[in-house]
Amino acid sequence: MKVVAYERSVQGTGASRRLRITGKTPGVIYGGTEAPQAIELDHNALFHALRKEAFHSSILDIEIAGKSQKALLRDYQMHPFKPLVLHIDFQRVDAKQKIHVKVPLHFVNAEIAPAVKLGGALISHIATEIEVSCLPADLPEFIQVDLGKIEVGHSVHVKDIPLPKGVALVSHLEQENPVVANARVPSAKAEVETAAPAAAPAAAPAAKEEKK
Fold it and tell me: CA separation (Å) from 123 to 38, 110, 116, 193?
């Protein structure tokens, strides 16, 4: 995905404010063997790019002064209540060095899962992304999670997800194998189903009295 940026010579809070007034967004690109470089981008183009999933999880081609640099989106700041991008950070990547990136999850086949078709359960997406490690060339835009076999009361964990070749899961000590999706029957429905069998025996004595 290509991103056009321009060199930014003036820095500081006042300069950034003036830049935003002209429809530009200040930013920086850092990492690698080169020094951090202050840049500016067209705000409208950037705002629309941020709404695309691939912009957040793909290797970007940042073109500055006719030269292209491979980079990842690392951070951006939005105005508290205005649709305004205040600042954006990119990190250069080396084709030979592994990167840690959060990749979005795409859930499929929930509608045919036994939990839904037979159990009337609802499937909740507990996580929408996972962190992986890989070389830039192996970075997937998303990772697919197949929910077609999930049953009521069961969950899908991170380690249950097949990963593309060259991609490894980045584990965190606080939660080694977190849940990404689960299937649960809504509490109101579960209460009704539990109470229904109890109502049947109560009708028996009444029928016996009528017979007398």
Answer: 45, 7, 8, 19
